[in-house]
Amino acid sequence: MKLLKVDSVEETKRKMDHYFEGISLDVEWIDIAQALGRIAAENLYAQREVPEFPRSTVDGYAVMAKDTYGASESLPTFLQLEGNVEMGEAAAQKIVPGKGVYVPTGGMLPNGADAMVMIEYVESLDGDTIAVYKAVAPGEGIMQQGEDIQKGEPVVAKGKKLKPQDIGMLAAAGIFSIKVFKKPRVFVISTGDELVHPKEETKLGQVRDINTYTLSAMALACNAEVVGQVIVRDDFQLLQNTVKHAIEKSDVVVVSGGSSVGKKDVTAKVIDSLGEPGVFIHGVAVKPGKPTIIGRVGDTAVFGLPGHPVSAMIIYKVFVEYILRRLQQLEEAQEVVIYGICDANIHSSPGKETYQMVQLEERDHQWIVKPIYGKSGAISLMTKAHGYIKIRENQEGIHKGEGVEVILL
Ligand SMILES: Nc1nc2c(c(=O)[nH]1)N[C@H]1C(S)=C(S)[C@@H](COP(=O)(O)OP(=O)(O)OC[C@H]3O[C@@H](n4cnc5c(N)ncnc54)[C@H](O)[C@@H]3O)O[C@H]1N2
Ligand code: MOO
Q1: Is residue 290 within 6 Å of ligand 2 at its C-beta?
Q2: What region holds the MoaB/Mog domain (predicted)?
Q3: CATH no. of 9-26+183-327
Q4: Which of 288, 304, 306, 394 has CB 3.0 to 4.6 Å from 267, enough for a Cys bridge?
Q5: ipTM of the predicted structure?
Q6: Which sequence spans correspond to the domains of the chain?
Q7: What is the pTM (predicted TM-score) of this model?
Q8: Measured between alpha carbons, how far is 251 from 249 in angstroms, rounded to an integer?
């Protein structure tokens, strides 16, 4: 019987790993200025060291630390001033015992100097002599050559999603053009005889399409490119033509609706009709979202998500994002998790991994996690939720007062 035997979440992920073994996105070269959110397709190593010369981290005087030993507010050390270092210019001076040179923050440290005394602890006496009122240790107030980045050091690993700081790091390390994975192309289809475009007037019984909007937005949030967004009737031929076209244009096709086993639920048959290996999952032990379909046609992943807007979003997060991460060989988990204390007992569905929507409230420096309830057709549930908790299939719900992990939405 269909949908009576379903796979667990772990089994489903294992099967996805198996069916998508060796499939990944093509790569392209881009300028680092365009690389935010893109995923590095190779390990990158620094082409230069940073800083390229020892620099002062304060406004003050470059000295030999040992000249300042014993100096204090009541007993200063007197040094001969050897002029200034200018910003952006090489330091021409050489520090020998008994000498000091003025260096601004970021300026080059003259040869021989091994510490900086901040200007606050120095008095300029006659233009040639300075009184130093504080002892400094070697290395104080200095950033050594190569201290930030060593030449040849790994700066970005393959599979890293690039953040603003990574782009700054690449610029500093002398890398301006990088190989990244192409953005995954996602095609979103809503199927249902009842569905109409949300701008249209409806007749009784018709339903305005929500899923192409939420699912496309979720794809964009994962840095994917949305290459199609359409509504199709529950008609085998029509859906087959649309999914066939979508497969040709994309890496991931997401069909919502028609995933169950009703007479008009044709998504699984359509996927199977379009090529090998076809559907390898129909039914997952999750709540919501049990009738989930996952297949592969050629190198394209094809998903049949439950039509209910909440279920479609949850299944997208759990399985479509999993495949998007896999295709891009993304290293880090994308989920942002926080810890809190559950404010009420939560029931689970034995044998199913349950995703419970929650709201968060900060109380006494702690996050209080409150379950919120609604039908899986109610999109408002998702807008009210700050996140969700996962209750494992063998876990008997959660007790009030228990600590839980919340995955933020
Ligand atoms: N005999 C069984 N029936 C059902 C089972 C089951 O295990 N055995 N599972 C139920 C569950 S759970 C779900 S979820 C649904 C999923 O069914 P479908 O994927 O076939 O979804 P539809 O019937 O097409 O739609 C469900 C519901 O959602 C509305 N919908 C669909 N698409 C959209 C859209 N793009 N925007 C807004 N709303 C949409 C649709 O009008 C329906 O009300 O199956 C159960 N049945
Ligand atoms: O599992 Mo269905 O997704 O609850 O409505």
Answers
A1: yes
A2: 187-326
A3: 3.40.980.10
A4: 304
A5: 0.95
A6: 9-26+183-327, 27-50+148-181, 55-143, 337-408
A7: 0.87
A8: 7
